[in-house]
Amino acid sequence: MAVLLQVRDAHKRFGDQVLLDGAEMSLVDDVKVGFVGRNGAGKSTFLRALLKEEELEKGEVIHHPSLRIGYLRQHDPFKEGESALDFLMRDSDQPDWRCGEVAGQFELKGAYLEGPVKELSGGWQTRVKLAALLLHDPNLLMLDEPTNFLDLRTQILLEHFLRDFGKAALIVSHDRAFLKATCSQTLELSRGKLTMFNGKIDAFLDFREERREHDRRVNATVSAKQKQLERFIEKNRASAATASQARSKAKQLEKLQTTEVEVDEPTVHIRAPRVEPKNGTAMRCEGLAIGYQATKDLPEHVVADTIALEIEHGQRVALVGDNGQGKTTLLRTLVHSLEPLAGNMKWGHNIEIGTYAQHVYTSLDERQTVIEHLEYNSDSNTTRQDLLAMAGALLFRDEHIEKKVKVLSGGERARLCMASLLLGTANVLVLDEPGNHLDVETVEALASALDLYKGTVIFTSHDRHFVRRVATRVVEVRDGRVKVYFGDYDSYLETVESEIDEGERARAGGSTSGSAASKSKPGKSNSGDYRQEKRDQRKAEKEVKNLEKKIARLDDERKALEKTMLTETDPAEAMKLHTQIETIKAQSAEAEERWMELSDF
């Protein structure tokens, strides 16, 4: 196992902010690592340092002589009028047949491969960039937010690619489901330090919270002991008879130190608008057609028609489907940003709609400051403390609350729009990709807030963990139709995964016997029974969680019995306690052995 890349004692500042403070890390040649950290922690700067595009103030980045990095950049590398195939040939210096072969792994064919690449959606352009990376034969992939702008189908395709990619990867992402599916280790950048955890993202987040809670408990005990010693010293140092004891206690006090709880920022807490719950129908449409009116240059464009949909108060409806199918068009029609082309749409009585979408957060009043915008758009009962807490949760802290809207970046405007929406009084929230521009912890806080929200939510998101947490109903937009999906989100995911598996099998079966595509890929089951594999994985994960709870409970029982045994004077009772302790130890050993078997499932 070779070390491909190593970082030693890295230091880097940006103004007054410390991004790297003695950070250290090693990446080996066969491990996929999920890279997480709060927004603004310095993840992108660190990636540039790894590429040696950013100078460190101190420390070094060491590349193994055999290291070949494939870096998925966010910028557009394409030339005007260039096709995807032309780009791949230009970028890689490989012949057209080889470029076409690799492009096929990402379903790039026909007009997607031979038409102008700049006319493709962001998701398809990402597929082209990934094919380009693969043509350079990297042994370390570095992907910076690869799921941004990717629909569910493309995300799953990327997961399958990474699952079969037998080399190293470092992946920056706020998408927990994607990290869980692709990465076996987790790297966190927090307060300038790097922490490598040998486990998946969910296990890491649990471990981090347990570590913080342990530190809080230790700090509480130490603080109590410090106060006790301080009171003793104050009371006894003036007396000659007890002065020596006071000096001894003072020495003890000097040795007591609290542990700094490793929290990068204050814990994120987000609240949804405080509204009264309502019953009945919130929105009904019949025979609805959505799309774009004819102009002098373009004819009418129908995206979907004959839509019949009814949404009840209190539901949290996820609109799902591939990019370009019409999810955003439907949302814009629901909030009256676009006029229906035909049919009827009606909202219930006393409905107040709050909207989070690009056409909203790109048109904020640029004359206001951040705090002025929040004050103007918040509920009249909102306190100054509420305003500052919400601003802080969405990363507007200290002097940033006085920044003018006109100087905010696109991501900052999006977060400001989200903050003002959540401080308002809307009893219907219409959200288009609300997790964009938010880190893992903030997305989780938003999901928790929407769980408690008493109003109605209609939203789109490609973040599977977020949708699973929030959605109570699934509506699919596909092939010009909008229909309620009769099943939960997990069953919808299984359907999409099954369709992708069938497509991959068809491509493999349709290849010539001598082509690389027809050969079985390393680690890929020929049966293709991926759905069963996922069901088995979820079952194993559930058993692991139950075993962890059982092991913790048995440990507590053992400690309690051992404590009782120390004070037991009756030999018969002591023997009974000893037998109980040995039984618990055997049960713990059995549970731990099973836990170890399942941990690598």
- Indicate the percent of residues in helices: 40-55%
Unreliable residue stretches: 511-528
Task: Note the gap between the termini.
Answer: 21 Å
Estimate what percentage of residues fall within beta strands: 15-25%
Number of domains: 4
Q: Which class do the helix and strand fractions yield?
A: alpha/beta
Q: What summary fits the major beta sheet?
A: 6 strands, mixed
CATH class of the largest domain: Alpha Beta
Q: Radius of gyration, rounded?
A: 29 Å
Query: Architecture of the largest domain in CATH?
Result: 3-Layer(aba) Sandwich
Mean pLDDT over the full residue set: 84
Numbering strands along the chain, what is their spatial order in the largest sheet? 5-6-7-3-8-9
- Total number of helical segments? 19
- The CATH topology of the largest domain is Rossmann fold
The CATH H-level superfamily of the largest domain is: P-loop containing nucleotide triphosphate hydrolases
Total count of strands = 18
What form results from the Cα inertia axes?
A: globular
